[in-house]
Design a protein that fits this description.
By secondary structure, this protein is of the alpha/beta class. Helices cover 48% and strands 17% of the residues. The protein has 13 helices and 11 strands. The termini are far apart.
Length: 370
């Protein structure tokens, strides 16, 4: 696997490797074959990704003496529905899968989420492997075992914690991504620096443009550092009962933004997260928890990179703050009817709180909509 970087998510008997590098799909079959118990694999992808990488991955797996079949899903967030999940599950069952069948998720976060969820419920659990092809999936959704689909009530409200057997992040797949998708993934990278790593954020201020412009060395470093931080949280708090909640910095706002736009391509997940990160720091500054200069520094970086940081940049002017707040009330992190938010005492100093009122949030949303 060349000059690839390897790290591990430590979960005792369910530990698994994350492999990050360039041009990994060509030899992915060898690593998959050594990781799984059976020979039957089914590659699940979408039509946008399949045209670039399905043939290469299938050939790699067949060279490793694996039996390969595939299923192609429609692209986009609207695939994460009960209807599409049911179609996928019924299709897999009709193919005669067994408990030694392994599903390979080849694609972005949508493919990984629905494939992982299907694996978690089929035959009471079968193996799956993540081969993420977007920056966002490589640094976030492919690692940690969060799987699921969306509901009309909000994002990722139906799902399970179910870990993959292996993650292979091939940065060469980023070459075929539209710039907008690269930027959307980059916001999740910034998130890690804002949570608890000021040094990493400072590095991103210097090298972020290289990450987004396709310099492989910088991309690999950013992905490895992001996965290292996420795997640390997952290893200590797999089911998100405490510290792992910090990884949701910006996401309570972000998921509400996505729900407001019907999970459409009008707002990508990473774009919503970028605005959510900005709003979380704006609220923190309003409450006297961090400096206004921290907010300006983050927003200046997003502006330099080309990411949005205000609601008015992506939402209609007639959007009501109360609409977003209603979606926030359905957030799965909330406890006993109280809003759970991740705020910050500065860059790299995030914390979880249940002490914020919706009346504190509304003015921040209103201001960002102007």
């Amino acid at each position: 696997m060349g000059n690839s970087k390897k790290l591990s998510v430590e979960l005792k008997e369910r530990s698994y490797e994350i492999i990050v590098g360039d041009d990994l799909i060509k030899t992915a079959g060898q690593k998959i074959e050594k990781t799984i118990s059976g020979k039957d694999i089914i590659i699940i992808s979408d039509k946008n990704v399949a045209k670039y990488y399905l043939t290469e991955l299938r050939k790699s797996c067949e060279n490793a003496k694996l039996s390969c079949r595939e299923i192609i899903l429609p692209p986009g967030e609207n695939t994460k529905t009960f209807r599409q999940l049911n179609l996928l599950v019924e299709r897999l069952l009709s193919m005669g899968i067994s408990r030694t069948t392994t599903l390979i998720a080849l694609g972005g976060g949508v493919v990984g989420d629905i494939t992982g969820f299907a694996a978690s419920i089929l035959l009471r659990g079968i193996n799956f492997v993540q081969v993420p092809t977007t920056l966002l999936a490589q640094v976030d959704s492919s690692v940690g075992g969060k799987t699921g689909i969306n509901s009309s009530q909000g994002k990722n409200l139906v799902g399970a914690f179910y870990q993959p057997k292996l993650v292979i992040a091939d940065v060469s797949t980023l070459d075929t991504l539209p710039k907008r998708q690269i930027l959307a993934g980059y916001s999740e990278i910034v998130k890690y620096g804002l949570i608890n790593n000021l040094t990493f954020f400072k590095w991103l201020e210097k090298k972020g443009t290289e990450v987004c412009s396709g310099r492989k060395e910088s991309q690999i470093k950013a992905i490895v550092e992001s996965c290292k931080m996420k795997s640390g949280f997952v290893s200590k708090d797999e089911l998100e009962n405490s510290k792992r909640t910090l990884l949701n910095l910006g996401h309570t706002f972000g998921h509400a933004i996505e729900a407001q736009t019907g999970f459409s391509n009008k707002v990508l997940h990473g774009e919503a997260v970028a605005i959510g990160l900005s709003l979380a720091f704006e609220l923190s500054a309003k409450l006297g928890l961090c400096l206004v200069s921290d907010v300006k520094r983050i927003q200046a970086h997003f502006k330099l990179i080309g990411l949005p940081f205000k609601l008015s940049q992506l939402l209609d002017k007639n959007c009501e703050p109360d609409n977003l707040i209603e979606f926030m009330k359905n957030d799965k992190k909330n406890k006993d009817g109280k809003l759970t938010l991740i705020l910050a005492r500065g860059i790299g100093k995030a914390f979880v709180t249940n002490e914020i009122n919706y009346s504190d949030v509304k003015p921040i949303i209103s201001s960002s909509l102007k």
